[in-house]
Fold each of these.
Amino acid sequence: MMKANSSWFWARCGLSGTLLGMLLLGLTGCGEAPPARFRLNMVEMVSSEMSRDQQIGIANVLTAAFGTPDEPFAMAEAELDLKKLKAAAGAVASDQLGNEVGLYRRHCAHCHGISGDGAGPTAAFLNPYPRDYRQGVYKFKSTERVARPTRDDLRRVLVEGVPGTAMPSFRLLPDHQLDALIEYVIYLSMRGELEQRLVAETFDLDEGERIDQLPEVAEITKEVVAEIGEKWAQASDLVINPDADLAPPTDRSPAELAVSIAAGRELFHGERAACVKCHGTTALGDGETTDFDDWNKRLFKLSESKPDLDLAELGALPVRTIRPRNLRQGIYRGGRRPLDIYRRIHAGINGSPMPGSAKASPDAAVGLAAEEIWNLVDYVQSLPFDSLSLPPEQLVAPKRERL
Amino acid sequence: MRRREMMASLLVLGLSWAICQPAAAGDWGTIRGKFVVDGDVSAPAKLEVTKDTQVCTAHHPVNEEVVVGAGNGLANVVVYLYSRSTPEIHPDYQAQADNQVAIDNLHCAFAPHVATLWTSQTLLLKNSDSVGHNSNITCIYNDSKNVLIPAGGEVPVKFEEKEKLPVAVACNIHPWMKGYVLIQDHPYMAVTKADGTFEIKNVPAGKQQLVFWHEKLAYLRGVKIGDGETSRKGRLKLKVASGDNDLGVVQIKAKDLAAG
């Protein structure tokens, strides 16, 4: 059993070893670009003080479990569709029939990076930074806070883009290409999640030990990938579906709507929902401007503990604070349907400082009730049309002065 | 991991059968010690309160990274048993297994600053202030949490897995608020009190490893404790005898605790 478990692993390690050997021998010369390689999460490596040797160990396990950017691989436990992955992976090309491959590098890698670290060549010029997939943390989705997004959530982001950011819409891509990209994004996430766990597992080992040299490495890897796969598989069971009976009717009179907006305003400025603390009394998003999202907080903590460290050398982007959304612009990154805004308030935004504010269960003592969240949705949606949000009246000088 | 542990324990069992008698089952030892700062530490800096000043400044919140108490005792050193698998739990702990462990948001600071939680217990996030708080707990093995706690409210949360290190607790509404919680699958853990002392009762006797961690120092490395010295990962190997095990006074240099 044990032997059978390990054999695929070593076979795959051997394969990557051969590839590495070819690279070292310069067989990829003749003006061809070297094969694309996944970059290790150096922020994790340095934060957890992995030795060079241990980093190599982690890289070997990752290659065995997920392959390379040109030759992706998925263990059965990951529940990924290898055919789709192959269409998205590899170099940009198309055959005589016009079938395109290398979709990820064609459409995504320049911002999100080959490894899905959100630090592609363009990333430094963008604000907000592109998503780093490697934690499995996504902000704009239909599921409970810490749950993974569903495939439909990722499709929505691809089709709609993310308003107010550099993420464009890929509405023009055919469905099968979107499917392939969604699969590949999940693949990069799972790979990054495994990497993080391997760092944690290596942390437990003695100084000289490497994770890829443990006799039970195949078993550990399978166990962790199965755990990660399960989280992704569970996502569709964790979609936030507000009780339809509690949702406001679609045929409300203006007076009824005004009552709801007023209730939402109370909550927004009160101590229970406390929205005002970060979004500001004006809702311009200026209440708390010194905080970080989870990705930048990790970087900030590392730079604090090791002030001499050059983050850029680790492949990390400069640390940035996060701004709460300016709610007067009417631009909503996760979608502008009332349901989208409901979900943002219910679960908060994973990876960001925005906390979830819904009751844990309908009879929980603390948290906002569904009706209250709908009141907030109404208030938030009224803000862009509030007099404060309108552009200042243009002062037109009298004709004579203009002449 | 399990197979390895099994193999290791089989090996250990075999060896101990051949060489010596293992510590008799049912032997338990209490570990105690005291952390003292060698030198003077500057007074904790006042925190800049930018929000809810009426509630938050009334008690002059200070940076609690380094808390030095009476007799130069170093508070908030986290001490816990290191074990790859869940250790045997002394029956006396069973009464606490379902307890709620509270972290209160009090005067815009976390009380306690460092909490310990056994995975069978429930963490109760409380808010005794008259302003809203949120508690953002970022984990590696558990699902992270970020819940809003209205004034006077409390939210129970559960964690299934142990974490290797204390995880940070933050309030995003009041970004100066910082705290930690250590989550383990056993109750053998302690945080040093204001006088620097700690005590962990009824640890299974025999060879054990303790981990020492402090917010400012991270792992306590190369620190002489009792007859031994901590490793790079803050671990100390020791043999827990039945009864009292006093690790004595542990000196921490003031310059290591200085800001920077």
Note: Residues 119 and 185 of chain B are 5 Å apart (CA to CA).
Amino acid sequence: MKKEPFLQREGTKSVLASLLSILFGLAFGAVVILIVGLTSKDLGADSAWEGIRLIFGGLFSTGRGSTGLLTWGFNGQNIGNMLFRATPLIMTGLSVAMAYKTGLFNIGAPGQYLMGTLVSLSVALGIPAGSMPKAVIWLLAFLAALLAGALWGSIPGALKAFLNINEVIACIMTNWIAANFVTWMFGISNFKNIVENTKSSYIYKTTYGLVDGTYVSGAGIATAKLGMDKLFPGSQVNGGILIAILFAVGVYVMMEKTTFGYELKACGSNRHAARYAGIADKRDIVLSMAIAGALSAGGAGLYCLAGNTEFFWSTYQSLPAIGFNGIPVALLAVCNPIGVIFTAIFMSMLSISGLQLTNLTAYNEYITDVIISVIVYLAAFSLVIKMWLGRKKDKVGAVNANAEPAPKAEPPAGAKPEEPAAAVPGDGEKGGDAQ
Amino acid sequence: MSDSQDYVIEMLHITKEFPGIRANDDITLQLRRGEIHALLGENGAGKSTLMSVLFGLYQPEKGEIRKNGKKVTINDPNDATALGIGMVHQHFKLVEVFTVLDNIILGAETTGAMGFLKKAEARKKVEALSEKYGLKVDLDAKVEDITVGMQQRVEILKMLYRDNEILIFDEPTAVLTPQEIDELMATMKEFAREGKSILFISHKLNEIMAVADRVSVLRKGRYIGTVNTAETDKQQLSNMMVGRPVQLEVSKTPAQPKEEILRVEHFCVPSHVHKRNAVNDVTFSVRAGEIVCIAGIDGNGQTELVYGLSGLDKSNGGTITLCGEDITHLSIHNRSKNMSHIPEDRHKHGLVLDFTLEQNMVLQRFKEPNFQRGGFINAGAVRKYAERLIEQYDVRSGQGPITRARSMSGGNQQKAIIAREVDRDKPLIIAVQPTRGLDVGAIEYIHSQLVAERDRGKAILLVSLELDEVMSLSDRILVMYEGELVGELDPKKTNVQELGLYMAGAKREGKEASA
Amino acid sequence: MTFLIQQTLLYAVPLMIVALAGVFAERSGIINLALEGIMIFGAFVGVLFVRIMQGSAWISAAKAANAYGTLQFFEVLAMLMAALFGAIFSLLLSFASINLRADQTIGGTALNLMAPALALFFIRLIANQNTLYIDGDGPSWFMIKKAMFGYGRTESMSWLGETFVNKMYLATYICIVLFVVLSILLYKTRFGLRLRSCGENPQAADSLGINVYHMRYAGTTISGALAGMGGFVYALTTANCTSNGDVAGFGFLALAVMIFGNWKPGNIAGASLLFGLFKCIAAAYSSIDINGDGVYMLKEIGINENVYRMLPYVITLLVLAFTSKSSRAPKAEGIPYDKGQR
């Protein structure tokens, strides 16, 4: 077997394409800042330059010095917070990536995440403190979140599998149903924070525990730190990041090494062929979405059970960004579960930079969302970028053609008009003679 | 060569390249006014590419096109239409949810103020044309509801509506019954008599000999030559087409049928399209050591029959007995314990195109103990197995077992499927159109494999639309018409004409249909 | 009753026009998942335009003089700006999915992420908060009032006038007219026939000399313009002419309406009225007095408002579940067309 040169390997090209997308996205953000800075009366080139530096290096910003200039340095708190933010993102990213590998676009991560939020908080706050060990409550809450997400995710999965309803549409609908459902349930619950009078539109942090019918701060649960607080003092990070990484490795092994993963991928790449081969395609589609849902909801569990987060419960008009951001995380990682760890961390780095931007300059954190959206936009045609990266290879390929005609030259035998997407876009018969 | 004024269209020294491949290499084709000119070549010889160049769908790298001796440039189908060139594509270019009339006028609409369609005028013109040439169509029916034969008439009317003088027919007979083919031939001759010029693309020698005045032959993208049909014969044409003497018949010994393997009784499969059954009350059996062929025109329930047998579709009546076991209600997985299935559509069912060749080789078997341990795939075993199949069945690909199935040629994709299915070594092999779209070499190979398996005692159920294949490969022929088996024929005692009558529903076992 | 009809119309019309935006894109073969994003962008541009222009001498004078005609013209101008920028924004989707043959779902998702991000980034810069307001009471300038027709404060315009004229917006009726005109365009003209053919069988269209790329650009651009305009109309009539980088899932709801209506304008009009009714009930169920007897029936039934809010989505899912066999999306939607591979 020929080993391809490093630069022409599929993996290398994917990484390069992702890096290019990131670079372009950041540059786009910088250009927007620059234009705004230069055209605005109140701002100026100096402020624009500050903004641009923060976009690229916000993680290492330490604020402003006494002279008013930006100061830089290693900031353990920032890095810890970055990892804390990355924790749920890894999970929603895994959710989208795993579903994508099985041929499903899980835009339902926000809804699944909300259901995870509802269930994990309800279990954590619903079980009276002291009735069982805190670790058990934590575990129960987390497992309940996984289960709720799995159930919620399996709804669009089942609609797709049994009724052939596009999962994107079904996911969007279930997202908004979840948003209303969660608002409804929390609205009639006892979990609304009435202890801290400024926080009445929030749900209690899980560090509150139910003691004799009232919520007492400190009686509840929080994710174990597992030493992360020592590593990054002053930050919010906890052991959740390690759990998320474990999940990533688990998903990787499942998808790449097991017969179950093979089955799911076969089903995702070509449902008809999988069925033909005796694979239970309908069950597998439901399972795929259930696992994806569990992962998203697990992200919510890890975030909510951290103990230092609160939840604005009247959420019927908006969906959680962490859910949607699973999409860029997954796409940027080319849906590789291990890659998801890094892209999720990168995304949270961006949001830390965004916060610094808001805190230290006249610009605001939304520019990082712009950057993320540009990256997703580029991901939509990452294939084109990869082709462009591989252009040199194609020229060589034409010469050492393996005596095999171009793939597209094959008429898709019997490609029925209703299945144009099955094999080759278009019906290729004109290329049919290109052998 | 006579004066170029005699030619209505000339394609001179056309070269068209695709990445890594030269589809047309210095091809010259000259079409006389009022002639029927056949373009003969195997699948993949470059016929369709050449026609796409003429129709403005591709731009050639080299060469020129002349109309009436003058050089012309054809950049898109609009230019082609302006020059009077029209084409009936092999895969019809029809919008299924539109009416017949909408399909005919699409792209050549007459409009009034503000772009409003004037359909009444168009309707009159189409009705007149349909009357004149006897091309009966229902203008208000949706294309998805009409028969394939009528769809082809719609395609022909599209050309006539545009007043085309040069008509290209790309493999027009593949979907027709022998009788419909005769009608089409008559229509084509009528067009030629009127002075229209016809390019007839085909790989079927009988039809070319029957209708064409001259034949140009292409092979592997190169121009081989042009001959008058009056001065040639089928053997010469087939030698020109393939480049070596071809055995037109499959060599096989008489069948030695043994015990019954498959028994199908009163079997019914519902249709996805209409309310009637796609397969209705079908009864037959296949024995070890024989090739039984289901013949019929596309869309008469053959696909559904196979789906029903393999479990891809649910049946709604009757029983299937395989190797003595009632499998009527078993899952696909459990049925496949005694059944290999070479599917009709290798891209839809046969392969996961994004998987590697080795992953495709174990598509049904990845859960068997030799290929997995505790749920984890045994990659080494899979690799070894794939390498053995590739070696044994001569499946060629760029990178061996790790080649993406998508990047392989059609012939080798099909070989891979056949390797996989034959190697599973099941008593029954269902092969559906196993040679579709392949070149002669691959066809010969696949035919010989099927005969070899028969001789090893396998029961083979073959579904084919190619009459030649049906006649030469099968030991028994069952004809399917509108979901029912209407006749059983012995290939040695019947002929294509009789087969055609059964296929068209004009004849039935035991009785002459009234139609 | 008057209140119920008015509110339902105000919710239904943006839905209807944005759903039609979806139809134009999908009938040409492009899945426009970005309706939500384009609406957000259109709303932002429209509100920004009003905010910028309101201080101009021209508008100030018109306001002072109660020059209704000028103010209605101003409203139409803002709608046009929203449409223009919606169309421009949608070019991002067209370019990615037509020229670069990108995954349309991902491309649409990118636009959905981009629009609120861009809008909020600028809103924060401009207004130093997360909502872009206009000074004073925008909707009241634009609202049609009975005073325009010479009615006095206490005079009644008759039931029809009170329901369909007084306190309604010209924008609503412009959208309805546009909806009808564009539906005719889609079915009765050469352009419409060709556009639809590209969404069903682009190979066939191409073989007949129809430029699939151009038709698809036309489809998505019309779609972008309508969605942008719809976004502003939504902001004007139901959100007090403010913009906060959000249209509360209205774009997705429009997508649901489109599917619910099986990609057919007539059905879509009906579906939007139904969904508009739900939206209206959810927003104001406690103050709806259906038969005017002073009893707020819906409130007394005691169904949680969130149930009304989620009903449109639940119904869509149910309808999809029951009609999935007969539901017919344009056959070629979502599949990039490659001229080289036919």
Note: Strands of chain C lie at 143-144, 168-169.
